[in-house]
Write a structure and sequence with these properties.
Helices cover 35% and strands 31% of the residues. The radius of gyration is 13 Å and the shape is globular. The protein is α+β, with helices and mostly antiparallel strands and 130 residues long. The longest helix is centred in the first third of the chain and has 16 residues. It binds flavin-adenine dinucleotide.
Length: 130
Amino acid sequence: MLHRLSYVSRAAIDRCSADFMDIARVSLQRNKAEGLTGALYYDDEQFFQVLEGDAAAVRATFARIRRDPRHHSIAVVSEGPADARLFEGWAMKFLDGAWVRDGRRLFAPEALSSVPPGELSRRIATLAAP
Ligand code: FAD
């Protein structure tokens, strides 16, 4: 059963740091191996991530991500079964906030409460479209 989870968190690392490259490298490698797809929006203040795939793999990956000190104030935005992948072909699509118009406002934790569950994942999929 396909499962999708999205969350928002506050970044504890800098855009140009080696940490960011490390997250990108490890995410691509491990998500590919576990059949996960998704997207990671990032700016200097926050992350917004969507993970989709087998439910057990999504949960195990998110459990590791939750323990990671490179971000904090992690809050699940939506979680549940999904009909189809929004990010087919993307082990992780990285979206740099510097290039996403209104990204910081769109993914700000205080803005998320007014957005219907699943809507943010659809929005980020639109941004991620090639
Ligand atoms: P190990 O590499 O063995 O590390 C052990 C512990 O140290 C873990 O808690 C790890 O989080 C932490 N750690 C690792 N490197 C550092 C460092 N440089 N500084 C401080 N602490 C560190 N992983 C995925 O597999 N898929 C994803 O999609 C994914 N997305 C992520 C998104 C964000 C915003 C962040 C912050 C991390 C993400 N990660 C992702 C990385 C994930 O948190 C784990 O670091 C990674 O999966 C390796 O897990 P591990 O248990 O093998 O950790």
